[in-house]
Amino acid sequence: MISEAGASAANRVGHSSNPVEPPILSGQGDLTSVAYERIEELFISLSLQPGASLSTQDLQNLTGLGRTPVHQALRRLAAETLFEIQPRNGLRVTPIDLAREKRLAILRRDMDRFVVEAAIGSMEGNERARLGFIIRLTESERSRMSLDRFNMLDKAFDILMIQASRERFLERCLRPLKAFARRSGYLDIDRVSKAEGLQSSIERHLAIMQAVMEGDVATACAMSDRLVDLAMEMLDRLERSVDPSLLDINFTLHASLTGGAH
Q1: Which residues belong to CATH 1.20.120.530 in the chain?
Q2: What fold, for 4-93?
């Protein structure tokens, strides 16, 4: 099932000319990489509801791309556990598993520390210029920034850090962790913490960016840890406050079939 936001998301995904739109790392703009980026954004923004079943054709319609690049992108996304391939039954969007995401946050804390230290040690002039640009945009737009816009800037920062670290392996292992974190964060901010949660996230991201710009490894790592702490707080809030059907749409279907209550 595709959420109501899915149709509008299809119009915005991958079609921005904004200079901070994240560049594609794993190809030179090939259609498979474009498909990956567009489907990942649909996943993060909850345009594809957690636990929902859908077909390759659904994603072709949403991304505006053909069967081959969408199919190849889905193979990677399934390997990264964002989707589950169901033989003869299409695809399933991986539900939000709060216990698992807490474990992944612990893993991400260590990986983020590695990226921060490596990026500070090898960041070049053009990369520092890009970082300064992202910082200025984030600061200038902070009071009116939408959640989708924040995610675009955050993703641009993450990709810049991976590039600056000079370790391309990180793209394959860290990006899926970031995608899961952004999706659960999106749900928390959209449904629970709202503007306060968004501003807290912006504040902690800016603290990391500024420490990286200053070349302060210790502070950047400490601020990175604080960001993971915030992610843990978001997961705790979801556990306490959110409708379980927003974590997995099949909860609602199961309850209606069995007569169970929410």
Answers
A1: 98-246
A2: Arc Repressor Mutant, subunit A (1.10.10)
Please give the radius of gyration of the chain, using alpha carbons only, rounded to the nearest integer. Answer: 18
According to CATH, the topology of domain 98-246 is: Four Helix Bundle (Hemerythrin (Met), subunit A) (1.20.120)
pTM assigned to the model: 0.89
What is the C-alpha to C-alpha distance for residues 153 and 21, in angstroms, rounded to an integer?
A: 8
Which residue has tokens 């612990």?
Answer: 106
Give percent of the chain above pLDDT 70.
85
pLDDT tens-digit map of 92-131: 999 999 999 999 999 999 999 999 999 999 999 999 999 9
